[in-house]
Amino acid sequence: MNVYIKTLSRDLRVALRNPSSVLNPLLFFVISVSLFPLAISPEAATLSQIAAGIIWVASMLAVLLSLNALFHHDYENGVLEQMVTSHHSLPLLILSKIFAHWILTGIPIILLSPLLGVFLFLDDEGIKVLMITLLLATPSLSLIGSIGASLIVGIKNSGMLLSLLILPLYIPILIFASSAVSQAQFGLAIDGQLYFLAMFLVLSLMSAPFVSAIALKISLE
Amino acid sequence: MSSLVISDLDCQRGYNQLFSNLSFQVSAGEVLRITGTNGSGKTSLLKILAGISASENGDINWEKHSVKSDEYQQEIFYLGHHAALSGELNSLENLEFLSALNKSTDQRKLIQALNDIGLKGYEEEYCANLSAGQKRRVILAGLFVSTAKIWLLDEPFTALDPAGVKIVESRIEQHCQNGGLCVFTTHQDSALANQRVLAL
Fold first, then answer.
1. Nearest CA to B194 among B168, B166, B169?
2. Interface size between A and B, measured as CB pairs under 8 A
């Protein structure tokens, strides 16, 4: 088996044997979304208008919550040192870890979103577009997040710093993704937004693993 | 004969100059033991040799390959201070991943390596349940499947019992007889043959 697939399967195995680290961000996602109807209004008209925004903000914060764990344990126990001294490509090893992170946070968020969409009276078209935007943009969240996570890996209690570093980069995704869903609810074209999200995905896929590799090397020195 | 040539190496950590103009050479078949007080730069030196840290000055060459080259990175086996193990994985899974980072090895050889290091019967045990010495042995089992020429071992004997130290020492001797070289740090005396000592 290829070393990159091994890295992926190792990360998945570690996470599944310690499920609380995976479940915490997902629980946060579900709970925070389900509190909005209680706090704002249970009316269908109001909720369906803000549904896309709520689900997108919550999923973004859930991903942010899970990012700390991306490199932290491997840094503490010295596995990152072993990855850096390996002659295999460090950016690709990191990409495998990011892919594992997306499988553990992005995919569950995508799968939970229709349920929460129904909960917030989002119509069928809205739910469909919501899932498409999540599918296009959650990988970008993991990729961009890895840059932040690798920059702060040696710093203690760095949750706040991570948000400050990463959230500004997440804002364009938030704006285009939630506007795509609300425009689809009105029956308007959303090609532009989807192209933007796809462009963002390609851009982060091309750059994030390399930037993270450089940042990790600096953190380890 | 191939050798690891280090010339004019400098290392500074914070405001402290740990060493400067450090030059030495280790030929294939040799063992270099690095000694020194706490904070004298033993670990920093090994990290520089492993390519994890960069040094401000100086050169490191192996058969004319610099420390950054793929050819060099393929030839090193680095063992750091940390356990480098995940508590959620068992010994075999941990060893399989760590050795895959260097070179993929089939499972039978890995089980044999765990046997050789004295962990027979612990292959399926989660590393969270192992003692400090047993954890050290799991990583050191990597020595038995390593095909790298240059071994850089930071305190390999920490937490090992005398029998464990003997196993590792005899593996290092075997490695040197096969044309490899080994640079390691320790505070303990070592009975290794062909050994030179570098005091920092």
1. B169
2. 75
How far apart are alpha carbons A51 and A129 in whole angstroms?
12
Give the C-alpha separation, A216 to A147, whole Å: 9
- In whole angstroms, how large is the CA radius of gyration of chain A? 18
Residue in this structure with the two tokens 């308007």, named with its chain if needed: A188
Give me the count of residues in chain A: 221
Is residue A135 within a helix (H) or strand (E), and if so which, with residue range? helix A124-151
Closest CA to A8 of A71, A119, A94: A94
Read off the tokens for B114.
């765990």
Tokens of A218: 């600096």
pLDDT (tens digit per residue) in A98-118: 999 999 999 999 999 999 999
**Which tens digit of pLDDT belongs to each residue from A45-95?**
999 989 999 999 999 999 999 998 899 889 988 899 999 988 899 999 999
Tell me how close the Cα of A114 comes to any Cα of chain B, in angstroms.
33
Q: Does A82 sit within 8 Å of B100, measured CB to CB?
A: no
